[in-house]
Design brief:
Helix content is 74%, strand content 1%. With 496 residues, it is mostly helical. It has one domain. A two-stranded antiparallel sheet has the order 1-2. Strand 1 and strand 2 form a beta hairpin. Helix 12 packs antiparallel against helix 13 and helix 12 runs antiparallel to helix 17.
Length: 496
């Protein structure tokens, strides 16, 4: 019997997306700010519906998707991201476009794509979910169609995205050709039963799939789209790309690697380690040279992806317990990263709404003209750098602990070095705010009360996770366990 109740949270999100688009279609004079708050309200309903699935027994729909704590983790994360970004977009988008219904509708649809990338237990379903997310993001990046920079960014994103999707699809076909199935459990079982330990078609298939997903999370050398897309996209969309897109990519990777291809870990773990080292190093070194805030965030997020990839590599070493530790460490860091990123972009959005500027030098004297925003940006950057008392410190610590094995110890050490490099360019931003006099407007100005309240809430979230990470860690650990309780997960203990 088919159980459709597992789709209820996404029914709410998709229904709200259709309703919001319909409101603007039939009521074109409806206030754009009101559409943003309706989207936020829908995301709250989506979040609340998702809460009812916490701790429920895993439930599968036709072997295509799985409703478990791992899915619930990303469902709640998606709803939270949409909530913050929709509020962030209220004033920003109302001043820049005459049609905002599709914008907010696509945000909700993209969130649904992320959920089903996490829930998918079959390759074709995962691919469709990936494309649902991708096509929504393609449109969102270029939503300001009269802005040449936005249009150019969208075009680059579409072209490179189509190429990466083709690689992922071709990799899928090779894996299917060898295993004869597209289900994750079936692939794991087929690979475990092979007479030969190594199959060239499988190795190539894995590499192509890694490359395809690597594009989505902007891992080097598949990161070329990120700086241009971040710079050209509307500021709230940049926040959306930096959080939801990356979380969705890792959701797919974790489900796929944890339940399907861990049996052949020897064929892919070395590639992940190389990707991790290259990504974190390139991202942090190039970030030092940036003058634009959004491009700096782009390269900083690439560096963060490098740290996260270490956990993926660690899944390929050791037993199921080690896999749970590596996965839970990554999941808790995603929480810290998302909260810190959203905090930064709330402040940058408030700053841009006032000044229409987005270069690092434009922050000069911000501590005098708007000390609250300067404090918020500082908190976010300190969290990225992993300083004590901030979310990034606790979540990085858990992630590195879970990812440390004899084989990955050197790349964890490299990650620590890169964290110090990132602290340098974060301090350069902070230096502009506190050590220089303001340029242009000298008098103190007020922040939009809604954005101010959102900033306060996120600052408290960053500090709470940093000083009391227990609840977030427990939630992440519960979310990680279903990946290693599937029928094929028992084979992880046999990884060489």
């Amino acid at each position: 019997m088919r159980d459709y109740t597992i789709f209820i949270p996404e029914y709410i999100a998709a229904g709200a997306a259709i309703g919001i688009i319909g409101i603007e279609l039939f009521w074109p004079n409806f206030r754009k700010e009101a559409l943003a708050y309706l989207t936020a309200l829908a995301s709250v309903a989506w979040f609340v519906a998702g809460l009812f699935f916490i701790g429920k027994d895993p439930n599968s729909f036709q072997g295509l998707i799985s409703s478990d704590d791992f899915t619930t983790y990303f469902r709640l994360l998606a709803a939270g991201i949409v909530f913050v970004v929709s509020i962030m977009s209220a004033n920003y988008m109302s001043e820049r476009t005459k049609t905002a219904g599709e914008y907010y509708g696509l945000m909700l649809i993209a969130g649904c794509g992320m959920v089903y990338m996490a829930a998918a237990t079959e390759l074709i379903t995962a691919y469709i979910s990936l494309e649902l997310l991708s096509f929504s993001l393609y449109i969102l990046v270029g939503y300001l169609k009269r802005d040449n920079l936005s249009s150019e960014a969208s075009l680059k994103y579409i072209l490179l995205g189509a190429f990466s999707s083709a690689m992922f699809l071709y990799g899928m076909s090779l894996v299917y050709g060898v295993t004869g199935t597209t289900t994750y459990d079936g692939i794991g079982a087929a690979l475990a039963e092979r007479s030969s330990d190594t199959d060239l078609a499988v190795v190539v298939g894995f590499m192509l799939m890694i490359a395809g997903v690597g594009f989505k999370v902007s891992a080097a050398p598949f990161h070329m789209w990120a700086p241009d897309a971040y710079e050209g996209a509307p500021l709230p969309v940049t926040a959306f790309l930096s959080t939801l897109s990356k979380a969705a990519g890792f959701a797919l990777i974790l489900r796929l690697f944890g339940t399907a291809i861990h049996v052949d870990a020897a064929e892919w773990r070395w590639a992940i380690i190389v990707l991790a080292a290259a990504t974190m190093t390139l991202g942090n070194l190039v970030a030092i040279q940036q003058k634009n805030l959004k491009r700096l965030v782009a390269y900083s997020s690439i560096g963060q992806v490098g740290y996260m990839l270490i956990s993926i590599a660690a899944i390929g070493y050791g037993d199921a317990e080690g896999g749970i530790n590596a996965t839970s460490g990554l999941l808790i860091h995603i929480i810290g990263y998302v909260v810190s990123t959203l905090l930064l972009f709330v402040a940058l959005t408030a700053f841009y709404n006032r000044t229409r500027k987005d270069n690092i030098e434009d922050l000069k004297g911000l501590a005098e003209t708007q000390p609250f925003l300067a404090l918020v940006i500082t908190c976010a950057l300190f969290s990225f750098a992993g300083l004590p008392f901030f979310a990034g410190f606790a979540t990085k610590l858990f992630m590195f602990q879970g990812a440390t094995t004899d084989e990955t110890l050197w790349v964890v050490g490299l990650a620590v070095v890169n964290s110090f490099i990132s602290l340098y360019y974060y301090l350069m931003v902070i230096r502009q705010m506190y050590l220089f006099d303001p340029v242009g407007e000298q008098k103190r100005w007020k922040v939009n009360p809604v954005l101010g309240a959102l900033g306060v809430a996120l600052v408290l979230g960053v500090l709470f996770i940093g000083m009391y990470p227990g609840p977030a860690f427990s939630f992440s650990e519960d979310a990680a366990k279903p990946l290693f309780e599937s029928p094929s997960a028992s084979g992880i203990a046999r990884v060489p």
